[in-house]
Every structure is written in structure tokens, then in C-alpha cells.
Amino acid sequence: MKTILITGAAGGIGGHLRRELAGKYRLRLSDLRPVKPLAKGESFLRADITRLGDLLRATKGVDAVVHLGGYSVEGRWEDIHPANIVGCYNAFEAARRNGVKRFLFASSNHAVGFYRRDEVIDHRVMVRPDSRYGVAKAFGEALGRLYADKYGMQVFCMRIGNVNPAPLDKRRLSIWISPRDMAQLVEIGIEHPEIRFEIVYGVSDNARSWYDNANALRLGYAPRDDSEIYAEPLLARERPGDPRAETLQGGAFVVEESIPNPASLAPARRRAAKTSRKAKRAVTKKKAAKR
Ligand code: 15L
Fold first, then answer.
1. 250, 109 in Cβ contact below 8 A?
2. What is the C-alpha separation between 100 and 60, in angstroms, rounded?
3. Residue 180 and residue 204: Cα distance in Å, rounded?
4. Residue 99 near residue 62 (C-beta atoms within 8 A)
5. 111 lines ligand 1 (CB under 6 A)
6. Residue 154 β-bridge partners
7. SS3 of 45, please?
8. Cis ω on the peptide bond leading into residue 37 (within 30° of 0)?
9. Rounded Cα distance, 76 and 287, in Å
10. pLDDT at 286
């Protein structure tokens, strides 16, 4: 049985993959936050991806790396740079030094988020990042190309839409991927014998898709889910938002400087963010009372 390292395993996608891949692989899970409780076939190794030494330990003896680790939304460069530029470099470099050939990179729809929603794009389009986060994902793809061409690594870049048991809103109807489809794509990335460097879209078979996912289909991807069954109630709930965000694929990422993602914050920062939100609400209330 192959041993697979999943970085950023404490996050949402990590949780889905752990469930879906259980029994198929030995999973070495790494994250800054502890992953608990561990299931059969899983082990945990604490790793800070900004430290090459941690990743050298984590990648030792594994058959493939699924690199999910990093800052998972748009944020300050001070957050994106260490986690998604330095951390991504460290993951590739540690794998290379340890002779791990197979590397699955969790890229994102935000590497191409500035394409319009009325366009269908494939894996060959130029990157059009919608954010610093998207730029870092494009960096990861370029790094993957380098490590494939120069060092013979087998690199599988998944431009993931949004992994969730069900889509969250109108935009996600086009980019949603169910946990079981996500796991299927990851298995292809781990197992397909002919992977050198590939870009695929991590999306289900959505009727409203913005992607021509021919490259994934060529490699045998046969998604089982389509977001359309969730469309009606979601569309009924949808309220008009920023026109630019609604025209472009990346949504809020194309206009916002930061996207709230409480799940990715450490507990202390989460508490601080909550306190500052409370304070903001109090100020707004005071102002309203004065008027
Ligand atoms: C992503 O790349 C993020 O990691 C995730 O948190 C979602 O925001 C997703 O894109 C999305 O576009 O919905």
C-alpha cells in the first residue's frame, strides 16, 4: 500500500480526502494544527511548511505528496507569501531532495479567476489570477512545471473549485466539486502512469461549468456529481452583489483585498477577529443611535 503525505490535512479538503481515501492508502497527515482523532492507517506529523526542515522530515519515504497546505483565501501579502510561496517551494524542494517523484498540487480556480463567466476555458489558457492568492497558485503551477521539466518529477496541478458536500451559492454551482469526485481526481493524480506535468480542473460534472475539463477526462476522470440538483433553492436565495464580482469567474476575489476564512485562522487569531468584529458592530450601533 502506498504512503501518501497530505499537507494542510487539518483543513476542509484534507478532512474530505481522509474519509474518501481511507483504506486505499497509508495517510501521513501534516499540519500546524493537530489532526485528531486519527483513523486506522493514518499518522500525524506536525509540520510548519515555511520550514524546509519540517517538510524534509514529512516527505521522507512517501510515494506521493498531496500539497494542500497554505493560506486558503485572499489575504495580506504577509500571510500569502510565507504560506503559499515559501511553503509551496519548500514542499516541492523537500519532495525532490527525498526522491519523491509524484506531486499533486492543490492549485485553484483563482489562478484563472479574471476570465469572464461567459467564457469556457481549458487547461491551456494563460493564467489570469484574481488575487495575491491566485498569483501564488500560478506560482505553484510554474514551479511544478520547472520541477517536472528539470528534475523529472510527475506533477499534477488541480485547479480546485470549491469542495463541499453541496454547493454554497450561485457561483459555486459552476465550480463545485463533491468530495467523492475530488477523491477520484486525487487518485488519478497518484496512480496514472503517464503523468509528467498536467493541469486539470477540480470540478464535478456541473451543467453550469465554466471549464472545458478535457485534460482530466483524457486521464480517465469520470465525475459522478452535477451541482444542478441544488440550483433552484440556491438561485432563489441569491441576492445581487458587486457587478464585477458577478461577471468574473473569481467572484469576490476579484474585488476584495481579503476574504474572511475563520476556519483557517488559529484559535487566538480567531478570538481576536471575533472581538474586532464585535467592536466594529458596537461602533456602527453607536453611530446609528447618534443619527
Ligand atoms: C479557493 O481556492 C479557496 O481555497 C476556497 O476557500 C474557496 O474560496 C474557493 O476557492 C472558491 O472559489 O469558492
1. yes
2. 8
3. 9
4. no
5. no
6. 102
7. strand
8. yes
9. 29
10. 56
pTM: 0.90
3-state class (DSSP) for residue 271: helix
Exposed, middle or buried by CB within 10 Å (0-12, 13-18, 19+), for 115? buried
Chain segment 153-181, per-residue pLDDT in tens:
999 999 999 999 999 999 999 999 999 99
- Could you confirm whether 151 is annotated as catalytic? no
Contact status, residue 25 vs residue 33, Cβ threshold 8 Å: no
* CA atoms lying within 13 Å on the CB side of residue 288: 6
Contact at 8 Å (CB) between 127 and 112? Answer: yes
pLDDT in tens, 29-54: 999 999 999 999 999 999 999 999 99
What are 81's three cell numbers? 507569501
DSSP state, residue 284: H
Residue 156 CB partners (closer than 8 Å, separation 6+): 102, 103, 104, 105, 188, 189, 192, 195, 198, 200
Ligand 1 midpoint to CA 289 (Å): 37
- Among the atoms of ligand 1, which is closest to the Cα of residue 133? 2
Q: Distance (Å, rounded) from C-alpha 267 to C-alpha 31?
A: 15
DSSP 49: T
Are 263 and 12 spatial neighbours (Cβ–Cβ below 8 Å)? yes
Half-sphere exposure of 152 (CA within 13 A, CB side): 3
67 secondary structure, DSSP code? E
Q: Are 144 and 92 in contact (CB under 8 A)?
A: yes
Across the chain, mean pLDDT equals 92
Does the structure show a pLDDT above 80 at 115?
Answer: yes
Ligand 1 geometric centre to CA of 161 (Å): 6
